[in-house]
Amino acid sequence: MARILPSYTEPYNIAVAVFHLLSLFLIIYLVNLNRLLNSTPPEVQKLVPRRWTQAEIKNTYNRLCKDPITTASYKAELPPRLQRRYVVTGGSGLLGGYIVLQLLERGQPPNTIRIVDFQTPHRSDLLCGPGKLVPFYKADISSAASTEAAFDAPWDKSVADLPLTVFHTAAVIIPSARSPLVNAFCEAVNVHGTAHVLASARNAGADVFISTSSASIAVQPVEFWAAPWKWRHHPQNSAQILDESDFFRPLQAHDEFWGNYPASKAKAERMVCNANAKELRTGCIRPANGVYGHPSDNLLGAPLSMQIYPQWVRNNVQSFVHGVNCALAHLQLEAVLAKPDSYTAPQAGRPFCITDPNPPIYYGDLHNVLSMLARTPFRIVTIPPVLMLLLSYAVEFYNLLPLRVPFLAGSLPRLPGGLVYLEPGLFTICTHLVGNMNEACKPVEQGGLGYRGVLTTLEGMCQELVDWNREQEEHAKEGLKAHYRSSVFLAEEIRKGGGTLIAVGT
């Protein structure tokens, strides 16, 4: 009689079948999520009335090559000159530099302006003409003593008695980190640094203080991992309207923000606005998600410097703001707060969201501008967004591992290049984000700034490519390559060096 052995085949086959079924389900789930991340919700599509054509991009670029946008070309839109002194923290950088240039353009003498920054001025438009005559004071705003020293330096006797306005644009931008384990850097500069600048401004007798905040404060974290039965719906919060309404509600807890950067900017914004009083009128400007306008920016300049640029957001829609428009909004707010009784005005002690004066655009249109107009090597590599999202969790785990397991700190190498920023928070800030600047556009008598901007996003981006190509060609003639450090990469250099030094403004 044949011996009958117990069979293990049936349970094994069931386990294999279940594994294959779950694997298939996971693949289908990820493919569907990738489809959603690669598409634009219908309600967002309606906010973009038209796309930029290639002819429109080329014609705008050629027009600006012949007639570039300069501070002189929009001088008539600037508020009138005021008899005041100015301190601009972060004045060497993108936004602060435009504030300095606009002050000079409207007739402000260079000796009434003071740049306070860790970087010496490096923009070509600040190294010639009246810009090169503006005094520079090096400071680390994370240090109260360093900040105080920059403010305490004597002014020219002929202007020392003028009232003082402080434009505080300095910050460090950490674009994706969200863990409290790595929050100290943002806190040191963006929160404590703002407190130091505010205290120094008071001690120096300032009566107007305007700080650059960020519209990203209003961004709620995107919930990418939706329930499977919601397979037709885009992830929750993947499309958001950004305004100032959150400011009038209690401050969120840290883990309710999408990252450490917006959490720190929200604290700083509340600090500045709460300081509003008769003796020191305060307010904030919230630039929409990306500030651009100089080859050192993160939006256009950083990709151009990379030459090979991975992207997964071509169909995402966002509002952006050129540094020229953002600087103008700062001066318009100052024009209101310079009046001694304005501390009770509706514009005082609150933020205003600012975008370029046009509908939001697709990232794909931005990419077309770069690909079509850059005269330096530049190539876009498209990657499935779901793969990058999955990778971001692995990058975050790796970045935090030395902090969670301290004995590994000296043995794990840092991730190279921009890969270190590929953490989940980056995906929230790169979804569909549309700025609402209705409050800023209201007339001054109705509580607004009368803001309308002086150049569109198409003009601003084409002008930046004009500047990029010209500077690269000039350096090529000398056998050199123009090199720019974006605020993100500068912040990383500072952090790696163990310091908490001032970086370029938002």
Automatic annotation (TrEMBL):
InterPro entries: 3Beta_OHSteriod_DH/Estase, NAD(P)-bd_dom_sf, NAD(P)_dehydrat-like. Pfam families: 3Beta_HSD. GO terms for biological process: ergosterol biosynthetic process. The chain crosses the membrane at residues 12-31. It comes from the Eukaryota. Residues 87-370 form the 3-beta hydroxysteroid dehydrogenase/isomerase domain. One of its GO terms (cellular component) is endoplasmic reticulum. Keywords: Membrane, Oxidoreductase, Transmembrane, Transmembrane helix. SUPFAM superfamilies: NAD(P)-binding Rossmann-fold domains (SSF51735). GO terms for molecular function: 3-beta-hydroxysteroid dehydrogenase [NAD(P)+]/C4-decarboxylase activity. Belongs to the NAD(P)-dependent epimerase/dehydratase family. Dihydroflavonol-4-reductase subfamily. This is 3-beta hydroxysteroid dehydrogenase/isomerase domain-containing protein. It comes from Coniella lustricola.
